[in-house]
Amino acid sequence: MSLKGKTAVVTGSNSGIGLGVARELARAGASVVLNSFTDRDEDHQLAADMAKEFGVEVRYIKADMSKGDECRALVEQAGACDILVNNAGIQHVSPIDEFPVEKWDAIIAINLNSAFHTTAAALPMMRKAGWGRVINVASAHGLTASPFKSAYVAAKHGIVGMTKTVALETAREDITCNAICPGYVKTPLVEAQIPDTAAKYNMTEDEVIEKVILERQPSKEFATTEQIGGTAVFLCSDFAAQITGTTISVDGGWTAL
């Protein structure tokens, strides 16, 4: 599944799922644009290290995904965008009647609106190139819901709906648009929460993983960032040329319940 000659822009990709996806695209030969809202030496070093490891061009471009103009500028600064992975996201947990308005606005802006802006900027590039792949990292919460996550669930359901719309608008072109819907993924952020949660519930870390964090994930195993990245690479391949407008769940059976 060589992606040599393709340029991939991955939002929110200096850690976690986004970084895992970026690494697998680079491994497959794509040039990669990493992104986050920071502009630190370590961000640019991350790009340099990845370029050296995989022998491809990797750049880091700062852009705040809560701001539409910066979302569009990210794609424009990339210069090319054959593969767009809309991954940037944040979370906040609160009852809806107590949900801070500023948190709602930020989650909708970063988790949903950013994908609108980047996709709108990328599609003309893809059409000019005659090929394109839009991959939206949604969530199991794009297909189901949990209490106290109203903004996140609303945004991820919106991402799934937009995925279908973009797929229909590009159905007669060599451009596809799909959503990956992960369940719980083992990222540094999740791993860091395990000891505190174990202390809170007076459980062992293994018990916390199985009974609290992975309560709704029947496999009782985390998905990995490599698995999410591999799914993205597959969606970019010729094998997936007729897969468009759909969701692929990587959730250990969560949405089968």
TrEMBL record:
Record-given protein name: 3-hydroxybutyrate dehydrogenase
Family membership noted in the UniProt record: Belongs to the short-chain dehydrogenases/reductases (SDR) family.
Enzyme Commission number, as recorded: 1.1.1.30
Top-level taxon of origin: Bacteria
Record flagged with keyword Transmembrane helix: no
Claim: Endoplasmic reticulum is one of the keywords in the record: no
SUPFAM superfamilies xrefs: NAD(P)-binding Rossmann-fold domains
Organism: Alloyangia mangrovi
Gene3D superfamilies noted in UniProt: NAD(P)-binding Rossmann-like Domain
InterPro entries: 3-OHbutyrate_DH, NAD(P)-bd_dom_sf, Sc_DH/Rdtase_CS, SDR, SDR_fam
Gene Ontology terms describing biological process: monocarboxylic acid metabolic process
GO molecular function: 3-hydroxybutyrate dehydrogenase activity
Chain segments annotated as coiled-coil in the UniProt record: none
PANTHER family referenced in this protein's UniProt entry, alphabetically: 3-OXOACYL-(ACYL-CARRIER-PROTEIN) REDUCTASE, 3-OXOACYL-[ACYL-CARRIER-PROTEIN] REDUCTASE FABG
First-level EC class: oxidoreductase
Keywords, alphabetical: Oxidoreductase
